[in-house]
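From: lab user (bench 3)
To: helpdesk
Subject: output format question, protein + magnesium ion

Hello, I'm new to running complex predictions and I'm not sure whether the block I got back is the full result or only part of it. Here's what I submitted:
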Amino acid sequence: MPGTHAAPRLTLWGIGWLALVGCASSDTGIEGLNATLWMQRSAEYRGSAEQAYRTAGQALEEGLADPSWTAAPEQAGDPSSLPPAVILDVDETVLDNSPFQGRLIREGREFNREMWSAWVGEAAAPPVPGALAFTRAAAERGVTVFYVTNRDSDLEAATKLNLERAGFPIAERTDVLLTRGEREGWGSDKTTRRAHVASRYRVILLGGDDLNDFISVSRSSIDKRDRLESAYSDHWGRKWIVLPNPSYGSWERALYGFDSNLDSDGRRQLKAGALKTGEADQDGPFH
Ligand SMILES: [Mg+2]
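Helpdesk reply: Thanks, we reran it on our side. This is the complete output you should expect:
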């Protein structure tokens, strides 16, 4: 969620929708409407998330039974004597922020820190379907559940409260909620935090909704992202469990080259140019 843009630009249909809800803004989260409704209202989203976590449960058993098993690229040396852990992202992996997306759309706003901090401060995000059962089962199996999130460190207390209220296991004797900027060197790239966990635990499984939750892709092009996805194809559904998130993510920012100076028109133009239509030269500008 941090650093994301909600949604660019109006279509004619969007203008009609805005008129319907009485929103005067010309720059709304209208592009996010379908994505957010899918995550909030579709049985298919719930089924997808539950499917992911059921797969995670099976992977956990396989990983626990194999002392050489590790899911973290950062795991160095022989991990067999280390206690087991799993690393999960927070937003759209264990906590569902679609109500926040709903507010952006309703108010015709893009992602902004004020509304985000207010939402996080409410500590009221519901759990992603399947996440509670998986994390509780993991904790009961003696597996430490780490939450590695790009929420800023000043939001850690509210995030922890939300996780506790929702019923997620939070180990008491170690810091299992690792936020961005909490320590020096813990930037938005999660590599250093995965390495921190992997230095003391055998990482059985990674779970997230963004490629950066599994491996450092930073501001990689679409082509490089595809190559990394392929390079780790044996990890998906086995060591790496990906949750569906059509609403936002580095996949979307890659489509406009991570150019934060672009306005919503510019972003939308580049994204539209990335659409595949079956014609020649339709791969978009950032491959
Ligand atoms: Mg996430």
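A quick orientation on your result: The longest strand covers residues 144-152. Let us know if anything else is unclear.
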